[in-house]
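pinned: reference chain
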Amino acid sequence: MNRFTLTVIGVLCFATLQAQTTKEEMLANLKKTGGNNMVYQPEIKPQTPAPKGYKPFYISHYGRHGSRYHYSGFDYQMFQRMMKSANDANALTDAGKDLKNRVDRLCEDGINRAGDLTQTGFNQHQGIAERMVNSFPEVFADNANIVVKSSTSHRVLCSMDAFMQKMKAMRPTLNVTTESSKRIMHYINNEERDSVTRYLNRTDGFRKANDAIDHALIHPERLIKQVFSDTAYVRTKVNAHQFMRKLFDLQCNMQNIDDLDFDFSDFFTDDEMFDNWQVTNVYWYANFSNCPYSNSRGSWCARNLLTKILDEADAALAGNGVSANLRFGHDTGLAPLASLMQLEGTTAQVTDFAELYKVWCDFKIIPMGGNLQMIFYKSDKSKDVLVKVLLNENEVKLPIDSKTAPYYKWDEVEAYYRKVLSEIPLSVKK
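pinned: its C-alpha coordinates
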Protein backbone atom coordinates (compact mmCIF):
# COMPACT_ATOMS: atom_id res chain seq x y z
CA MET A 1 0.00 0.00 0.00
CA ASN A 2 1.55 3.32 -1.04
CA ARG A 3 1.71 6.48 1.03
CA PHE A 4 -1.05 8.23 -0.92
CA THR A 5 -3.50 5.43 -0.13
CA LEU A 6 -2.58 5.73 3.52
CA THR A 7 -3.33 9.45 3.39
CA VAL A 8 -6.77 8.82 1.92
CA ILE A 9 -7.59 6.06 4.37
CA GLY A 10 -6.57 8.43 7.13
CA VAL A 11 -9.60 10.60 6.36
CA LEU A 12 -12.17 7.80 6.22
CA CYS A 13 -13.63 8.82 9.56
CA PHE A 14 -13.98 12.32 8.12
CA ALA A 15 -16.01 10.88 5.23
CA THR A 16 -18.38 8.96 7.48
CA LEU A 17 -19.36 12.14 9.29
CA GLN A 18 -21.17 13.49 6.22
CA ALA A 19 -24.92 13.18 5.85
CA GLN A 20 -25.79 10.03 3.94
CA THR A 21 -27.93 10.12 0.83
CA THR A 22 -31.11 8.06 0.97
CA LYS A 23 -33.28 6.49 -1.69
CA GLU A 24 -36.17 8.55 -0.34
CA GLU A 25 -34.20 11.74 -1.01
CA MET A 26 -33.54 10.67 -4.57
CA LEU A 27 -37.13 9.70 -5.31
CA ALA A 28 -38.37 12.99 -3.88
CA ASN A 29 -36.38 14.83 -6.56
CA LEU A 30 -35.84 12.60 -9.58
CA LYS A 31 -33.72 15.29 -11.26
CA LYS A 32 -30.95 14.08 -8.95
CA THR A 33 -30.92 10.77 -10.82
CA GLY A 34 -29.54 12.80 -13.71
CA GLY A 35 -26.22 12.61 -11.87
CA ASN A 36 -23.59 14.70 -13.65
CA ASN A 37 -26.39 15.84 -15.97
CA MET A 38 -28.39 17.40 -13.14
CA VAL A 39 -29.22 21.06 -13.70
CA TYR A 40 -27.29 23.24 -11.26
CA GLN A 41 -29.67 24.02 -8.41
CA PRO A 42 -27.54 24.94 -5.39
CA GLU A 43 -29.21 24.99 -2.02
CA ILE A 44 -26.84 27.63 -0.69
CA LYS A 45 -26.56 27.66 3.06
CA PRO A 46 -25.64 30.80 5.03
CA GLN A 47 -21.90 31.51 5.05
CA THR A 48 -19.91 31.27 8.26
CA PRO A 49 -18.63 34.76 9.16
CA ALA A 50 -14.88 35.18 8.75
CA PRO A 51 -12.80 35.57 11.90
CA LYS A 52 -12.79 39.13 13.19
CA GLY A 53 -10.74 41.50 11.07
CA TYR A 54 -10.40 39.19 8.05
CA LYS A 55 -11.51 40.32 4.60
CA PRO A 56 -11.47 38.43 1.26
CA PHE A 57 -8.79 39.55 -1.20
CA TYR A 58 -8.18 36.71 -3.70
CA ILE A 59 -10.24 33.92 -5.30
CA SER A 60 -9.07 30.76 -7.02
CA HIS A 61 -11.85 29.07 -8.97
CA TYR A 62 -12.56 26.07 -11.20
CA GLY A 63 -15.97 25.79 -12.86
CA ARG A 64 -17.55 23.14 -15.03
CA HIS A 65 -19.48 24.31 -18.09
CA GLY A 66 -23.20 24.80 -17.69
CA SER A 67 -26.15 22.82 -19.00
CA ARG A 68 -25.73 21.55 -22.55
CA TYR A 69 -27.33 19.39 -25.18
CA HIS A 70 -26.42 15.72 -24.93
CA TYR A 71 -22.70 15.56 -25.63
CA SER A 72 -22.78 13.02 -28.47
CA GLY A 73 -24.45 13.49 -31.84
CA PHE A 74 -23.68 9.84 -32.54
CA ASP A 75 -25.99 8.81 -29.69
CA TYR A 76 -28.83 10.81 -31.22
CA GLN A 77 -28.29 9.18 -34.61
CA MET A 78 -27.77 5.68 -33.26
CA PHE A 79 -30.96 5.76 -31.21
CA GLN A 80 -32.96 7.31 -34.03
CA ARG A 81 -31.78 4.61 -36.46
CA MET A 82 -32.64 1.90 -33.94
CA MET A 83 -36.18 3.18 -33.50
CA LYS A 84 -36.70 3.65 -37.25
CA SER A 85 -35.57 0.08 -37.97
CA ALA A 86 -37.94 -1.30 -35.37
CA ASN A 87 -40.80 0.78 -36.71
CA ASP A 88 -40.08 -0.31 -40.29
CA ALA A 89 -40.22 -3.92 -39.07
CA ASN A 90 -43.59 -3.25 -37.41
CA ALA A 91 -42.01 -4.24 -34.10
CA LEU A 92 -43.10 -1.29 -31.94
CA THR A 93 -46.00 -1.01 -29.54
CA ASP A 94 -48.05 2.19 -29.46
CA ALA A 95 -45.79 3.36 -26.64
CA GLY A 96 -42.79 2.47 -28.77
CA LYS A 97 -44.14 4.56 -31.64
CA ASP A 98 -44.59 7.45 -29.24
CA LEU A 99 -41.00 6.98 -28.11
CA LYS A 100 -39.84 7.00 -31.74
CA ASN A 101 -41.68 10.27 -32.37
CA ARG A 102 -40.06 11.87 -29.34
CA VAL A 103 -36.62 10.66 -30.39
CA ASP A 104 -37.20 12.13 -33.84
CA ARG A 105 -38.09 15.47 -32.27
CA LEU A 106 -35.06 15.31 -30.01
CA CYS A 107 -32.78 14.63 -32.97
CA GLU A 108 -34.32 17.37 -35.08
CA ASP A 109 -33.77 19.84 -32.26
CA GLY A 110 -30.33 18.73 -31.16
CA ILE A 111 -28.42 16.80 -33.81
CA ASN A 112 -26.36 19.80 -34.93
CA ARG A 113 -26.13 21.17 -31.41
CA ALA A 114 -24.79 18.11 -29.58
CA GLY A 115 -22.64 19.32 -26.70
CA ASP A 116 -23.58 22.98 -27.15
CA LEU A 117 -24.38 25.17 -24.16
CA THR A 118 -28.09 25.80 -23.67
CA GLN A 119 -29.67 29.00 -22.40
CA THR A 120 -30.10 27.24 -19.07
CA GLY A 121 -26.32 26.75 -18.95
CA PHE A 122 -25.71 30.40 -19.87
CA ASN A 123 -28.01 31.53 -17.06
CA GLN A 124 -26.28 29.25 -14.55
CA HIS A 125 -22.92 30.93 -15.06
CA GLN A 126 -24.43 34.38 -14.98
CA GLY A 127 -25.98 33.52 -11.62
CA ILE A 128 -22.74 32.10 -10.21
CA ALA A 129 -20.83 35.21 -11.30
CA GLU A 130 -23.41 37.54 -9.79
CA ARG A 131 -23.35 35.74 -6.45
CA MET A 132 -19.54 35.67 -6.41
CA VAL A 133 -19.23 39.42 -6.99
CA ASN A 134 -21.95 40.22 -4.45
CA SER A 135 -20.51 37.88 -1.82
CA PHE A 136 -16.87 38.99 -2.17
CA PRO A 137 -16.94 42.60 -3.42
CA GLU A 138 -13.47 43.32 -2.03
CA VAL A 139 -11.95 40.95 -4.60
CA PHE A 140 -13.61 42.81 -7.48
CA ALA A 141 -12.69 46.35 -6.58
CA ASP A 142 -12.09 49.00 -9.25
CA ASN A 143 -9.34 48.04 -11.71
CA ALA A 144 -8.79 44.63 -10.12
CA ASN A 145 -6.88 42.18 -12.32
CA ILE A 146 -8.75 38.99 -13.22
CA VAL A 147 -7.02 36.14 -15.08
CA VAL A 148 -9.35 33.74 -16.88
CA LYS A 149 -8.46 30.41 -18.51
CA SER A 150 -10.77 28.07 -20.42
CA SER A 151 -10.79 24.66 -22.01
CA THR A 152 -10.91 24.80 -25.80
CA SER A 153 -14.38 23.20 -25.76
CA HIS A 154 -17.06 25.42 -27.28
CA ARG A 155 -19.51 24.90 -24.40
CA VAL A 156 -16.82 25.83 -21.90
CA LEU A 157 -15.90 28.97 -23.82
CA CYS A 158 -19.57 29.96 -23.89
CA SER A 159 -19.82 29.34 -20.16
CA MET A 160 -16.78 31.52 -19.55
CA ASP A 161 -18.30 34.22 -21.75
CA ALA A 162 -21.57 34.15 -19.81
CA PHE A 163 -19.69 34.42 -16.53
CA MET A 164 -17.52 37.30 -17.70
CA GLN A 165 -20.41 39.19 -19.28
CA LYS A 166 -22.16 39.32 -15.93
CA MET A 167 -18.98 40.11 -14.00
CA LYS A 168 -18.02 42.98 -16.32
CA ALA A 169 -21.58 44.32 -16.30
CA MET A 170 -21.40 44.50 -12.52
CA ARG A 171 -17.81 45.78 -12.36
CA PRO A 172 -16.97 47.54 -15.66
CA THR A 173 -13.49 48.64 -14.56
CA LEU A 174 -12.14 45.12 -14.06
CA ASN A 175 -9.00 44.30 -16.04
CA VAL A 176 -9.62 40.86 -17.54
CA THR A 177 -7.13 38.70 -19.46
CA THR A 178 -8.28 35.43 -21.02
CA GLU A 179 -6.75 32.38 -22.64
CA SER A 180 -8.14 29.26 -24.26
CA SER A 181 -5.49 27.13 -25.90
CA LYS A 182 -4.10 23.64 -26.19
CA ARG A 183 -1.08 24.63 -24.13
CA ILE A 184 -3.18 24.86 -20.94
CA MET A 185 -5.23 21.70 -21.46
CA HIS A 186 -2.71 19.60 -19.49
CA TYR A 187 -4.14 21.13 -16.32
CA ILE A 188 -7.52 22.61 -17.30
CA ASN A 189 -8.70 19.12 -18.24
CA ASN A 190 -6.05 16.42 -17.88
CA GLU A 191 -8.20 13.68 -19.42
CA GLU A 192 -6.92 10.22 -18.44
CA ARG A 193 -10.06 8.13 -18.22
CA ASP A 194 -8.77 5.60 -20.76
CA SER A 195 -5.74 4.73 -18.66
CA VAL A 196 -7.80 4.56 -15.47
CA THR A 197 -10.40 2.36 -17.17
CA ARG A 198 -7.71 0.00 -18.44
CA TYR A 199 -6.33 -0.29 -14.91
CA LEU A 200 -9.80 -0.99 -13.50
CA ASN A 201 -10.57 -3.59 -16.13
CA ARG A 202 -7.42 -5.48 -15.17
CA THR A 203 -8.54 -5.54 -11.53
CA ASP A 204 -10.52 -8.66 -10.58
CA GLY A 205 -12.12 -6.98 -7.57
CA PHE A 206 -13.45 -4.09 -9.64
CA ARG A 207 -14.80 -6.31 -12.40
CA LYS A 208 -16.66 -8.47 -9.90
CA ALA A 209 -18.04 -5.50 -7.96
CA ASN A 210 -19.03 -3.65 -11.13
CA ASP A 211 -20.70 -6.71 -12.67
CA ALA A 212 -22.52 -7.38 -9.41
CA ILE A 213 -24.08 -3.91 -9.20
CA ASP A 214 -24.98 -3.95 -12.89
CA HIS A 215 -26.65 -7.36 -12.70
CA ALA A 216 -28.44 -6.45 -9.49
CA LEU A 217 -29.89 -3.17 -10.73
CA ILE A 218 -30.33 -3.14 -14.52
CA HIS A 219 -33.45 -5.06 -15.53
CA PRO A 220 -34.68 -3.93 -18.95
CA GLU A 221 -37.38 -6.57 -19.44
CA ARG A 222 -40.33 -4.36 -18.48
CA LEU A 223 -39.11 -1.46 -20.64
CA ILE A 224 -38.52 -3.73 -23.62
CA LYS A 225 -42.09 -5.08 -23.40
CA GLN A 226 -43.39 -1.51 -23.16
CA VAL A 227 -41.57 -0.45 -26.35
CA PHE A 228 -41.38 -3.53 -28.57
CA SER A 229 -44.23 -5.75 -29.75
CA ASP A 230 -42.16 -8.44 -31.52
CA THR A 231 -40.12 -10.66 -29.21
CA ALA A 232 -38.35 -12.35 -32.12
CA TYR A 233 -37.20 -8.97 -33.39
CA VAL A 234 -35.92 -8.04 -29.94
CA ARG A 235 -34.06 -11.34 -29.62
CA THR A 236 -32.13 -10.81 -32.86
CA LYS A 237 -31.91 -7.01 -33.19
CA VAL A 238 -31.98 -5.35 -29.75
CA ASN A 239 -29.41 -5.32 -26.99
CA ALA A 240 -31.89 -4.82 -24.17
CA HIS A 241 -29.31 -3.75 -21.60
CA GLN A 242 -27.75 -1.19 -23.95
CA PHE A 243 -31.18 0.07 -25.00
CA MET A 244 -32.19 0.84 -21.42
CA ARG A 245 -28.87 2.42 -20.50
CA LYS A 246 -28.77 4.65 -23.59
CA LEU A 247 -32.38 5.77 -23.21
CA PHE A 248 -31.57 6.57 -19.57
CA ASP A 249 -28.58 8.67 -20.73
CA LEU A 250 -30.86 10.67 -23.02
CA GLN A 251 -33.42 11.07 -20.25
CA CYS A 252 -30.81 12.34 -17.80
CA ASN A 253 -29.90 15.20 -20.12
CA MET A 254 -33.44 16.28 -20.99
CA GLN A 255 -33.62 18.58 -17.95
CA ASN A 256 -30.89 20.73 -19.53
CA ILE A 257 -32.71 21.45 -22.79
CA ASP A 258 -34.74 24.65 -22.95
CA ASP A 259 -37.06 24.32 -25.92
CA LEU A 260 -38.60 20.83 -25.75
CA ASP A 261 -41.77 20.05 -23.82
CA PHE A 262 -41.18 16.34 -23.19
CA ASP A 263 -38.75 13.88 -21.68
CA PHE A 264 -38.55 10.08 -21.39
CA SER A 265 -39.30 9.70 -17.69
CA ASP A 266 -42.58 7.89 -18.30
CA PHE A 267 -40.62 5.00 -19.83
CA PHE A 268 -38.99 4.36 -16.45
CA THR A 269 -40.38 3.59 -13.04
CA ASP A 270 -38.97 5.65 -10.18
CA ASP A 271 -37.06 2.61 -8.96
CA GLU A 272 -35.55 2.10 -12.42
CA MET A 273 -34.43 5.74 -12.48
CA PHE A 274 -32.79 5.30 -9.10
CA ASP A 275 -31.14 2.00 -10.03
CA ASN A 276 -29.81 3.23 -13.37
CA TRP A 277 -28.39 6.31 -11.68
CA GLN A 278 -26.56 4.12 -9.17
CA VAL A 279 -24.73 2.34 -12.00
CA THR A 280 -23.79 5.67 -13.57
CA ASN A 281 -22.65 6.94 -10.18
CA VAL A 282 -20.30 3.95 -9.91
CA TYR A 283 -18.72 4.89 -13.24
CA TRP A 284 -17.90 8.40 -12.09
CA TYR A 285 -16.63 7.24 -8.74
CA ALA A 286 -14.43 4.50 -10.17
CA ASN A 287 -12.90 6.61 -12.93
CA PHE A 288 -12.61 10.05 -11.35
CA SER A 289 -12.41 9.71 -7.60
CA ASN A 290 -10.67 7.92 -4.73
CA CYS A 291 -11.97 4.46 -5.66
CA PRO A 292 -9.88 1.81 -3.87
CA TYR A 293 -10.05 -0.51 -6.90
CA SER A 294 -8.15 2.06 -8.97
CA ASN A 295 -5.78 2.89 -6.10
CA SER A 296 -7.20 6.45 -6.35
CA ARG A 297 -5.89 6.90 -9.90
CA GLY A 298 -9.05 8.80 -10.84
CA SER A 299 -8.20 11.63 -8.49
CA TRP A 300 -4.58 11.75 -9.68
CA CYS A 301 -5.83 13.22 -12.97
CA ALA A 302 -6.10 16.53 -11.09
CA ARG A 303 -2.44 16.65 -10.04
CA ASN A 304 -1.52 19.26 -12.67
CA LEU A 305 -4.58 21.35 -11.87
CA LEU A 306 -3.99 21.31 -8.12
CA THR A 307 -0.32 22.18 -8.66
CA LYS A 308 -1.37 25.13 -10.82
CA ILE A 309 -3.85 26.30 -8.20
CA LEU A 310 -1.18 26.23 -5.49
CA ASP A 311 1.42 27.96 -7.65
CA GLU A 312 -0.93 30.71 -8.82
CA ALA A 313 -2.15 31.31 -5.26
CA ASP A 314 1.44 31.67 -4.11
CA ALA A 315 2.11 34.18 -6.89
CA ALA A 316 -0.97 36.21 -5.99
CA LEU A 317 -0.06 36.23 -2.31
CA ALA A 318 3.47 37.29 -3.22
CA GLY A 319 2.03 40.40 -4.85
CA ASN A 320 1.67 39.76 -8.60
CA GLY A 321 -1.44 41.95 -8.61
CA VAL A 322 -3.96 39.23 -9.55
CA SER A 323 -7.23 39.33 -7.59
CA ALA A 324 -8.79 36.19 -9.05
CA ASN A 325 -7.76 33.20 -11.15
CA LEU A 326 -10.89 31.85 -12.82
CA ARG A 327 -10.69 28.55 -14.69
CA PHE A 328 -13.41 26.93 -16.78
CA GLY A 329 -13.42 23.25 -17.67
CA HIS A 330 -15.28 19.99 -17.32
CA ASP A 331 -16.70 17.42 -14.92
CA THR A 332 -13.61 15.33 -15.71
CA GLY A 333 -11.56 18.13 -14.18
CA LEU A 334 -13.78 19.04 -11.23
CA ALA A 335 -14.48 15.53 -9.90
CA PRO A 336 -10.79 14.54 -9.65
CA LEU A 337 -9.89 17.93 -8.15
CA ALA A 338 -12.50 17.68 -5.39
CA SER A 339 -11.37 14.12 -4.65
CA LEU A 340 -7.65 14.91 -4.71
CA MET A 341 -8.31 17.76 -2.29
CA GLN A 342 -10.29 15.30 -0.12
CA LEU A 343 -13.14 17.73 0.27
CA GLU A 344 -16.03 16.95 2.54
CA GLY A 345 -18.36 14.51 0.75
CA THR A 346 -15.74 13.26 -1.74
CA THR A 347 -13.46 11.01 0.32
CA ALA A 348 -15.45 7.79 0.68
CA GLN A 349 -13.61 4.49 0.11
CA VAL A 350 -16.20 1.94 -1.03
CA THR A 351 -15.75 -1.58 -2.40
CA ASP A 352 -19.39 -2.70 -2.16
CA PHE A 353 -20.96 -0.54 -4.86
CA ALA A 354 -24.47 -1.21 -3.54
CA GLU A 355 -23.50 1.09 -0.66
CA LEU A 356 -21.82 3.79 -2.74
CA TYR A 357 -24.78 6.13 -3.26
CA LYS A 358 -25.12 6.64 0.48
CA VAL A 359 -21.73 8.35 0.78
CA TRP A 360 -20.63 9.50 -2.72
CA CYS A 361 -22.94 11.15 -5.24
CA ASP A 362 -21.93 12.57 -8.60
CA PHE A 363 -24.72 15.16 -8.63
CA LYS A 364 -23.43 16.69 -5.39
CA ILE A 365 -19.97 17.22 -6.91
CA ILE A 366 -20.30 17.66 -10.68
CA PRO A 367 -23.75 18.90 -11.68
CA MET A 368 -23.95 21.08 -14.77
CA GLY A 369 -22.29 24.33 -13.74
CA GLY A 370 -20.56 22.69 -10.77
CA ASN A 371 -17.75 24.76 -9.30
CA LEU A 372 -15.05 24.95 -6.66
CA GLN A 373 -14.07 28.29 -5.16
CA MET A 374 -11.16 28.97 -2.81
CA ILE A 375 -11.65 32.29 -1.03
CA PHE A 376 -8.54 33.83 0.56
CA TYR A 377 -8.70 36.24 3.52
CA LYS A 378 -6.19 38.49 5.24
CA SER A 379 -6.15 40.80 8.23
CA ASP A 380 -4.06 43.83 9.10
CA LYS A 381 -3.65 42.37 12.58
CA SER A 382 -2.30 38.93 11.64
CA LYS A 383 0.34 37.51 9.32
CA ASP A 384 -1.78 34.39 8.73
CA VAL A 385 -3.68 34.17 5.44
CA LEU A 386 -6.86 32.13 5.76
CA VAL A 387 -8.70 30.21 3.07
CA LYS A 388 -12.08 28.55 2.84
CA VAL A 389 -13.38 26.29 0.09
CA LEU A 390 -16.83 26.35 -1.48
CA LEU A 391 -18.04 23.35 -3.46
CA ASN A 392 -21.03 24.36 -5.53
CA GLU A 393 -21.18 27.55 -3.47
CA ASN A 394 -21.44 25.79 -0.11
CA GLU A 395 -18.72 25.69 2.51
CA VAL A 396 -16.95 22.35 2.85
CA LYS A 397 -14.46 21.09 5.38
CA LEU A 398 -10.91 20.11 4.52
CA PRO A 399 -9.06 17.12 6.04
CA ILE A 400 -7.04 19.51 8.20
CA ASP A 401 -7.52 20.51 11.82
CA SER A 402 -8.62 24.11 12.30
CA LYS A 403 -10.19 25.86 15.25
CA THR A 404 -11.75 28.29 12.79
CA ALA A 405 -13.09 25.80 10.21
CA PRO A 406 -14.27 26.27 7.50
CA TYR A 407 -11.45 28.84 7.56
CA TYR A 408 -7.96 27.31 7.44
CA LYS A 409 -4.45 28.73 7.58
CA TRP A 410 -3.14 28.84 4.03
CA ASP A 411 0.37 27.74 4.92
CA GLU A 412 -1.04 24.58 6.51
CA VAL A 413 -3.40 23.94 3.59
CA GLU A 414 -0.64 24.38 1.04
CA ALA A 415 1.77 22.16 2.98
CA TYR A 416 -0.88 19.44 3.17
CA TYR A 417 -1.61 19.47 -0.55
CA ARG A 418 2.05 19.70 -1.56
CA LYS A 419 2.56 16.53 0.48
CA VAL A 420 -0.40 14.85 -1.23
CA LEU A 421 1.07 15.74 -4.62
CA SER A 422 4.52 14.46 -3.64
CA GLU A 423 3.05 11.06 -2.75
CA ILE A 424 1.50 10.43 -6.16
CA PRO A 425 3.71 7.77 -7.80
CA LEU A 426 6.26 9.17 -10.21
CA SER A 427 5.14 6.72 -12.90
CA VAL A 428 1.93 8.69 -13.47
CA LYS A 429 3.42 12.16 -13.25
CA LYS A 430 4.05 14.18 -16.41
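why pinned: Residues 1-430 form a domain with the Rossmann fold fold (CATH 3.40.50.1240). The longest helix spans residues 270-288.
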